[in-house]
Design goal:
Number of domains: 1
Helix content: over 70%
Shape: rod-shaped
Number of helices: 2
Structural class: mainly alpha
Strand content: under 5%
Largest sheet: none
Oligomer: single chain
Radius of gyration: 19 Å
């Protein structure tokens, strides 16, 4: 439990950051898995489309 108002605010901000980062990390992992599966399946043209 936070002892000061600023510590409580930091705790709330940390929760928001953690959730945001978790979503981004999961999206990156999913994209990586999809890319690897396309490459292993020999669908290099489709895999190339995933790159910007």
């Amino acid at each position: 439990m936070a002892n000061t108002a600023s510590a409580a605010k930091q705790a709330r901000a940390a929760i928001r950051r953690r959730e945001f980062n978790r979503v981004l990390l999961q999206a990156a992992r999913s994209a990586q898995k999809k890319l690897l599966s396309l490459i292993q399946a020999g669908k290099k043209a489709e895999a190339a489309k995933l790159f910007p």
